[in-house]
Amino acid sequence: MRKVVLVTGASSGVGLALCKRLLEEDDELHVCLACRNVSKAEAVSADLLASHPAAEVSIVQVDVSNLQSVIRASSELKQRFQRLDYVYLNAGIMPNPQLNIKALFCGLFSRKVIHMFSTAEGLLTQEDKVTADGLQEVFETNVFGHFILIQELEPLLCHRDSPSQLIWTSSRNARKSNFHLEDIQHSRGQEPYSSSKYAVDLLSVALNRNFNPRGLYSSVVCPGTMVTNMTYGILPPLVWTLLLPIIWLLRFFANAFTLTPYNGTEALVWLFHQKPESLNPLTKYLSATTGFGSNYVATQKMDLDEDTAEKFYQNLLELEKRVRVTIQKPDNPS
């Protein structure tokens, strides 16, 4: 029986590279592309099948920043599949990133220059907005939409005899200082992306505590510093042209500069081959690249505690109760 892999945000960047690499590892997989843009997903599907004709590739339309869309897609997936073996929770946004020029130039002449480029700590702020669901867009897209997806797909994920894996795309930019339990949506801050990725780390830990006995395991990954559609818009093309040689040199001193989506998927592909029961739920798995371009997986203990993770999980459950009041399930009569 084919293993089924669901990938959100599969039409570009890390998601697209991941689908290609997974089929290179096992061309008999069934890969389901969970994307907002169906036409782009169809082009990706055709390309994957041309390279791997033995595979199965399907598409489900979903916008994780819209809860109606998430519930509709979940319903469709439950009709198609009896189980999901892997769910890569990869879709995410960093809207309107603004570079702190002063912090950049100060960092260039400090001892923290490598750390600054590796994590973007203090460099980027974003302008968030409220979605049609009344939630902060970054929080809903990067965290809550995926959380609802998991809740809806629970019947396909919880099988004690054969575990399923959730694999989240997190970040080295997930900073504890940017997250607060009193403001889990980061509505009062300027770094919603960092806050959302720390929330992902917390949620993964809480999911393991609550779902491991039922056969569901969760891990988090950082794909490293890459030049993708998300990051390329932060700076003008000329600045990227000037910075890239410096970044290539920095790879000899720090492993975070994976630079390409292909390299960035190293840890995500590595987790595909691991027994989830053997993984440490408090570890973040990092895609890493040497100065000479060799890829490998590094590990990092997450800067969090399980009690905070559980409190955050309970907050999400309470928020879920409130938002479900306003959501009409597709199969319910109006």
UniProtKB/TrEMBL annotation:
InterPro entries, alphabetized: 3KSR/17beta-HSD, HSD17B7/Erg27, NAD(P)-bd_dom_sf, SDR_fam
Keywords noted in UniProt: Endoplasmic reticulum, Glycoprotein, Lipid biosynthesis, Lipid metabolism, Membrane, NAD, NADP, Oxidoreductase, Steroid biosynthesis, Transmembrane, Transmembrane helix
Any one Gene Ontology cellular component term annotated for this protein: endoplasmic reticulum membrane
Catalytic function, reaction form: 5alpha-cholest-8-en-3-one + NADPH + H(+) = 5alpha-cholest-8-en-3beta-ol + NADP(+); 4alpha-methyl-5alpha-cholest-7-en-3beta-ol + NADP(+) = 4alpha-methyl-5alpha-cholest-7-en-3-one + NADPH + H(+); a 3beta-hydroxysteroid + NADP(+) = a 3-oxosteroid + NADPH + H(+); 5alpha-androstane-3beta,17beta-diol + NADP(+) = 17beta-hydroxy-5alpha-androstan-3-one + NADPH + H(+)
Assembly description: Binds to the short form of prolactin receptor.
Family the entry assigns: Belongs to the short-chain dehydrogenases/reductases (SDR) family. ERG27 subfamily.
Protein name: 3-keto-steroid reductase/17-beta-hydroxysteroid dehydrogenase 7
